[in-house]
Amino acid sequence: MRFLRDLFRYNASTLLSMGLLVALPVLGSSSLSWVLYRNQELLQHLSTAQVLLYLALIAFTMAFALTPTTFVALVTGFYLGWWGFPGMVLSYALAAMVGYLVAASLDHGKMLQFLHHFPKADAVMQELKNDSWQLILLTRISPVLPFALMTFVLAVMRVERKRFLAASVVGMLPRSLFFYWLGTKAQDVFALVRDPDTGTAGKLLVAGLIAVSVFGLYYLFDRALKRALKKSQKNVA
Asked: What's the predicted TM-score (pTM) here?
């Protein structure tokens, strides 16, 4: 009880930011769906400069949770086709880095300092940081974990920056490739973002990615807890 009370007391701004990062993607995707419904030719026949502007814009919207990454993959695939996929990956990497830097500047290490007062929680956090490559991959591979929120959490944990960026890009590729492919095959962008028809194989793929993420994260947390307890027992002995 004391842990939760102090957590909200000393980390109110961090927790508020995390709450906003959960709610904003729903609002953002709904608003943009309405815009696309009213202007379905908005992103057609773009010049090179306009494409670059679009890629910079989606990096911004993903970084600040204004658009879910799945939404971006669908829409970009629909309008730009496969030649735009490398640009979308670069936008994803830029969004991840911007989100990381903003979250780190907002938190200022307060969460980790707070955890120092709770040795068990701090020990588990340190063990998770030792497995940060796997942790980042598992948070990115899931289509349902909010991108900006996971970026914020990983930044608060102070995972190594280069590892964060590399693992984020690698982890997003399976689901992004799939949803990007759906976008390239669609005939109507509004119908696409409203109800992507993934088919049986697609549903199985999405379910499989979610299962890998859930069970993988459970395994990492369980192993981190056991290692932390084992080290604690050795120190006591």
From this structure: 0.79
